[in-house]
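Re: the pair you flagged

First of the two:
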Amino acid sequence: MNKKDDNVVIFGMENSKKLANEIGEYLGREVLPVQKITFADGEQLLYSDTTVRNKTVFIICNTSKPVNDNLMGLLIFIDSLKRASAKRIICVMTYYGYARQDRKASGRQPITAKLVADLLEASGANKVITIDLHNPSIQGFFEIPVDDLRGQFIFSSELRNRKENFVIVSPDHGGAVRARQLSELLNTGEQIAIIDKRRTAPNVSEIMGVLGNVKGKNVVIYDDIIDTGGTIIHAAEALKAQGAIKVIIAATHGLFSKGFDMFENNPIIDEVIITNSIDHSELSHYSKLKELSMAQFLGMVIQANIKNTSITEIYDAYSQGN
């Protein structure tokens, strides 16, 4: 470890301890805990026991449920690091809460994804590293650098090792680019398919049809987020009705707001693949759930930020199956 590397400190927020420790193991670095005091009225005080003066600080974190508690805790901790004279504060947000509130869908609604960006900047963050933002345009809400990493590279490594051909299916028109990128990484020669759906209310949609040929094919429905799961299960049913053989669901962020039983007990669903962007330790007993670790991927990105090298080189290595 050179002298420059000695000026780097990595913290793992309470909700990301497991992933943070895996990243630390990959990098060969100690991941420090965040000190936390909760007062009787619910107020929180978060701080570092270790000096961070003139150091580059990475915070491994996510703002999944409870979203407001996790977001507020992160803002408080960033503020404490700024006031402790940290040179640079980089948030590695494996899940960016409120990302789906990225526009005014109707009058008098907030754009909360922008509000969160403002809060992160105001608290003292100098850069945000995240993965699969619900809408890549959220990067434009920031006046600081944002690395919106692509989860396709993590999934391509897993699916490539299975030695099978898959048709990648987007659950809606908006995810077609994401599905195309994963399909190209797999290089199987298969065309993608798209579920034609109409959203009738939050977390509620109607499947209108399937665009593309899935008959006699193994399919992977690829999305950024699984929340309640109802829409993506309807998509799986539509694909099965069109003659799909094996149906796998893959998503970077598994929220599972209504639990996992609906997937486990559904005979149409063969498997659900997610990353550990959110801690799913309580779901480890489910046989149909497979969790991919993003520790190596994020570790390489953090190392690139420390050494000021290109993230494109990391993408190239994953594209070549290295």
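Second of the two:
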Amino acid sequence: MKTRTPYARAPRRSRAPHASRALAVAAVVLGSTLLASCDGNGSGSGSSDTVTVGLGGNIFDVPIRLADKGGYFAKQGLKVKYATVTASTGTSALQSGSVQFLNDSPTSFLSALAQGLPQTVISSDAGGNPLGLVVTTEFAKKHDLTADTPAAQVAKALVGSTGGASSTNTKAQTAVFLKSYGVGPDQVKWVSLPSPAADKAALKNHQIDWFTTSEPTPLQVQQSGDGVVVADATKVPAWSSAKVGYTQFIAASNSYLRQHAAVARKFVTAVQQATAYMNAHPGSSTVQSAARQALPGVPADVVKASMTLIDWPTSGAMSASGWNTTLAFINSLDVLPRKAEVTSGDWTNKYLP
């Protein structure tokens, strides 16, 4: 039997000093690259993070559009894509990760919480309640109603009339308006319609006498000569910002926030800067251009008038008292399956600058 001779092992050689330095430099470069790749959504240092935000296609999209158009996102190193969502699809889009941020209403957010979905509100970007109640021109003439008619007189004139309702929320808010002036919601007839566009068509075809929805639709109807806006938040205390609390929020899923805190901070910083600019320069060409981008096809003067019905805050910070006001108002509408509740863990200001 032959004995296997082991291979001879070469003597160990020491590395030259310049080779050791080269390896050290390479290790530092590699480490820096790995750290950069872990930032945000995995982009390297000096590159932009790309995020998708869910928008409802309404006037509350303006701060987001301005943050993009005005370069605020770019300054934060963000590239933003958009996805159009509805009240029923926005929450699921956030949970699935198809959008990273959602410009959300308090009703939708509270509905998500009621379902046990792990989401957090990280900023507020609008206040107020830009509702408008528009009646047909014929109804306005018959009851001697104008844009300046006191809200109490408008409510009384609606007794026995037929109104359109394209959402439980706007129907409930119209009921709040009526009840605040002694008119019961059962003293009017309601026609359920699928959308504000359907409201508008039904009004023009004289299938209904009036409807309530968020601007700019009512003002568009008025501009076309088919109706008169006889009630809005400037005339109806029950619709005022002080009564309804916060109106629009930026929400994100808890899992996304745990992994991308830096990106969330950049996003809300850019939106806050844009909203503060809107507050100081509401009539500027940049703001109005962003507003028209958010509301394509809406006449410029209607867009401008609609913008005045919303409070654009200089800060996205929220407070417990503000949330209490919001909760009280939404619970008074009785549009959720059960009473809405919010804890301090459901919203935070920590991502704000």
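The longest helix spans residues 17-37.

-B.
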